[in-house]
Design brief:
Elements (H helix, E strand, L loop, with lengths): L9 H16 L7 E4 L12 E7 L17 E7 L2 E7 L10 H4 L1 H8 L4 E10 L9 E10 L27 H13 L4 E9 L7 H9 L4 E3 L3 H9 L4 E10 L10 H25 L18
Parallel strand pairs: 1-4, 1-5, 5-9, 6-7, 7-8
Antiparallel strand pairs: 2-3, 3-4, 5-8, 6-9
Helix pairs in contact: 1-3, 4-7
The chain binds hypoxanthine.
Length: about 300
């Protein structure tokens, strides 16, 4: 099976079309909210009601998620009275996919009708005052993957826009709504800048000192490309990092993926409460989850 073009050519649009056709066939219907959930957090997809599940493997040309803790399905269903579409199983740049492939779930969920995208991830904390288990709303990001999902997309004239505006990558109304929700639900929520690196290795202590100096509060190996794609698709975005560990050099301990998933597992109930409260309050934020307007064919 051929995979989506690494150059963001027509194959990307074809894969999106295959995914939409398969989801349609499965009876997924339209969605209001898209979610892409990080390490150990994707069990939330199992809590969707009246859900329809389409494994990535059933979609021609779609990449498979190869990381433990990332399942690899689209799941569409109801949560807190909203129609939600989830990419259960994120695709990572470090798995060897092109940046344009990593964002395929964003494109598919946008075309399904999503008017809001909520992203979560597991991340390392760059701040000693923010220990493992801390939840951090993402205010802004630094893309250090040195790969861009929009690169070359002008060549097809349809894959996405370029020179995308990025001053409000994370929608201020949604950020405010996350804080309102946290307050109402008595969940402690910090705020900060997420630095997205390519991985798959964890950082060196010197790299962490560099990230602290350039203004990052958390570091992880996902999210930044998805956020770029969301901006290109004019899809309002909210992001939450679950800080699973102190970044390299902040403690003497060595980092392991098992530790990241373990902390994510212990903390995910709090994050799930935040997400559910956020969904219940979405109307109040003036977001009417309008779905894609004029973006058809730009997938
Ligand atoms: N670094 C990069 N990615 C991560 C980390 C980290 O410390 N923790 C969880 N994801």
């Amino acid at each position: 099976m051929t995979r989506a073009s690494a150059r963001g050519g027509p194959a990307i649009a074809e894969v999106v079309a295959s995914a939409l056709a398969r989801l349609d066939e499965a009876g997924a219907g339209r969605i209001e909210v898209a979610m892409i959930l990080g390490s150990g957090l994707s069990v939330l997809a199992d809590h969707l009601e009246d859900s329809v599940r389409v494994p990535y493997g059933e979609i021609a040309g779609f990449p498979r998620s190869t990381v433990p803790g990332h399942a690899g399905n689209f799941v569409v269903g109801s949560l807190e009275g909203r129609r939600v579409g989830m990419a259960q199983g994120r695709l990572h740049y470090y798995e060897g996919y092109a940046a344009s492939e990593v964002v395929l779930p964003v494109r598919v969920l946008r075309q399904l009708g999503a008017g809001v995208l909520l992203i979560t991830n597991a991340a390392g904390s760059l701040d000693r005052r923010r220990p493992p288990g801390t939840l951090m709303a993402i205010r802004d990001q630094i893309n250090l993957q040195f790969a861009n999902p929009l690169a070359g997309s002008h060549q097809t004239g349809r894959a996405a826009r370029m020179m995308v505006e990025h001053t409000e990558t994370y929608d201020p109304r949604l950020l405010a709504l996350l804080h309102q929700t946290a307050l109402a639900e008595r969940i402690r929520l910090r705020e900060g800048v997420y630095a997205g690196v390519s991985g798959p290795n964890y950082e060196s202590p010197a790299e962490i000192r560099f990230l602290q100096r350039i203004g990052a509060d958390a570091v992880g190996m996902s999210t930044v490309g998805e956020a770029v794609a969301a901006a290109a698709l004019e899809l309002p975005l909210a992001g939450v990092s679950l800080l699973t560990n102190f970044a390299a050099g902040l403690t003497r301990r060595q980092l392991h993926h098992d530790e990241v998933t373990e902390v994510a597992e212990r903390t995910r109930h709090r994050l799930e409460r935040l997400i559910r409260g956020f969904l219940r309050r979405l109307d109040g934020a003036g977001m009417n989850t309008p779905g894609p307007r004029g973006v058809q064919g730009r997938a």
